[in-house]
Amino acid sequence: MKKSLITLTVTLLTLLLIFWIPPIPQAQEFHAFVDGRSLMGVVNAGNVLSNIPFLIIGVYGIIIVSRHSRSAAISAIYGVLFIGVLLTGIGSAYYHTHPDNDRLVWDRIPMTIVFMAFLSATLAELVSRPVGVRLLLPFVAVGIASVLWWHHTETIGKGDLRLYFWVQFYPMLAVAMLLLLYYKPGVKTILPSLIWIVVWYTVAKIFEQLDAQIYRMIPVSGHTLKHLAAAASTGYFVRLYRVKYVTSAAVLCQENRSS
After folding, report:
1. Residue 235 above 60 pLDDT?
2. Contacts of 191 (CB under 8 A, 6+ apart)
3. What domains appear along the chain, each with residue ranges and CATH number?
4. Which of 40, 69, 187, 193 would be 75's cystine partner, CB 3.0–4.6 Å?
5. CA 99, 238, 139, 77 torsion-angle sign
């Protein structure tokens, strides 16, 4: 009960904090990416083609979940997560062919599906599987709503990214918090994957901020590298699922046969 109260309190405090600051509009220079080179007819090729890893990881993750389903709850959470990864690749490629606010909606909605499915998965793995699956749809709904709200506020000239920022960053904070509160020996197998998910996502955000600076040093933009680093982060979702629900299950099955 005490742990649940701490989790709820921290969650509410982060929401209060994000809405305590003034509304944050979308800066239009956000769409001005430094690398506008085309390749074989693909405009903004670096930022478009660097989404291919999301497609590969999304499809592979969906296949792994469908072939190695451990329970309906877990399959639902990770299935939604990998569908989000797949849609991220599609939505981001679509956005980068002609960057503007309207297309950015279709870039961001899939990402929020991934963020919130990840939060649901973290709860399922560390706290309670029933809690994680019950909160999956509400979490995803909040994520999608955060993008739709942002876009609506932009259309009326009062852009507000605050809820979207919370959706983007709170799941990463929640991983650390839930690990501290609910760590148990069984978590040890998936701990490296959880850490690398957060590390690679952090690296991706750094690359995003250094778009032009990196491009001046090497013939690849920071935003292109951001996509690759973010894809590496999602790759650890596959590793987490394989370690927890494929490899461990195979080992258990072998031990049962031996006995």
Report:
1. yes
2. 179
3. 2-258 (1.20.1070)
4. 69
5. positive
